[in-house]
Amino acid sequence: MANLNLASDCRTDSCVWSSLRQEAAAHATREPNLSSLLYGTILERESLEGALINHLADRMSTGDFNSLKLIRVLKDAVLVDATIIESAARDLLATFERDPACRSYLQAFLYFKGYMAIQVHRCAHALYRDGHELIAFHLQNRASEQFGVDINPAAHIGSGIMLDHATGFVMGETAVMGDDCSVLQGVTLGGTGKADEDRHPKVGNRVLIGAGASVLGNIVIGDDAKIAAGSVVLNPVSEKCTVAGVPAKPVAGPCVRSPSETMDQTLEYAT
User: Fold this and answer.
1) Distances (CA, A) of 194 to 91, 210, 217
2) What is the pTM of this model?
3) What is the pLDDT of residues 140-179, one digit of tens each?
4) CA-to-CA distance for 49 and 110, rounded, in angstroms?
5) Left, alpha or beta for 131 (phi > 0: left; psi -120 to 50: alpha)?
6) 234-239 long-range contacts, Cβ below 8 Å, gap at least 24?
7) Which of 171-184 are b and which e, b meaning 16 or more Cβ less than 10 Å from the residue's Cβ?
8) How far apart are CA 149 and CA 146, in angstroms?
9) CATH 1.10.3130.10 residue spans of the chain
10) Is 209 exposed, middle or buried (0-12, 13-18, 19+ CB in 10 A)?
11) CA distances, 269 to each of 79, 211, 244, 245, 264 (Å)
């Protein structure tokens, strides 16, 4: 098995890339049936940028929009927003550190659809802001088909994000998510009404959102907040506050800092 201590000590995209290559090399020897995949996806690439772009292009290609065309499109996105690769490295680190089912960077990079969906969105968002709206919506549509995740390309997402399991995650046009958040499956960051205006949630930093939660309307979710699974949040949530229920209400004392890192979804009800 690859040396996971290397991964846990990484804090830069170059270190993440180095660890990813070491893991790929180790598994190429151990799993010869996967060696062609590992060489083509990672070991023959010169950088995290090259590996990510080629991997996403392979996963997203269609008969009328092949991987070579997609590679050019994704490269253009990285030229527009140079932070995409740094954010991709931070997302990979966040997934490795927070998901107990994640055994290596390699596993998340190759197979975790939440990770891949976020990276496709970053590219779509860059292209959308650069005036290439139709290409951006094409990427959104393919990500929805491939990964079961629907993020409007206009929505803004920070870095250090773990989108766990990912299936059914929806994020609307004017929604914002800060840095270092953890979001589980079936979460909706949705709007209310159909007016063309700012109508979606603004999620702060280090927020944990449990499975199946719906956060609706132009409301602010404060830093370090925790939203329990299955909740329907219709009102703003203060910093370090835990909310649960339908409609969601505060249910416990202040959260510890960074509930997104601890991934503790238990609730301590006040007596």
Assistant:
1) 32, 26, 11
2) 0.92
3) 999 999 999 999 999 999 999 999 999 999 999 999 999 9
4) 14
5) left
6) 239/204
7) bbebbbbbbbbbbb
8) 8
9) 10-150
10) buried
11) 49, 19, 10, 12, 14
Return d(Cα 227, Cα 264) in angstroms, integer: 11
The token pair at 194 is 């159909």
The 3-state DSSP composition of the chain as helix, strand, coil percent (nearest 5) reads 45, 15, 40
CB atoms within 10 A of CB 134: 8
pLDDT at residue 1 above 60? no
Q: Where in the chain is the domain with CATH 2.160.10.10?
A: 155-271
Identify the CATH number of the domain defined by range 10-150: 1.10.3130.10
Strand partners for 190: 216
Tokens of 24: 């790929």
Dump pLDDT digits (tens) for 39-86: 999 999 999 999 999 999 999 999 999 999 999 999 999 999 999 999
Tokens of 251: 């249910």
Phi and psi for 226 in degrees, rounded to 5? -130, 130
Query: What is the per-residue pLDDT across 176-232, written as a single tens digit (0 to 9) for each?
Result: 999 999 999 999 999 988 877 899 999 999 999 999 999 999 999 999 999 999 999
CA distance 132 to 66: 18
Amino acid residing at 220 = V
Number of H helices, E strands in the chain: 10, 15
For domain 155-271, give the fold.
UDP N-Acetylglucosamine Acyltransferase; domain 1 (2.160.10)
Tokens 């996403």 belong to residue: 56
CB 211 within 8 A of CB 185: yes
SS3 assignment, position 58: helix
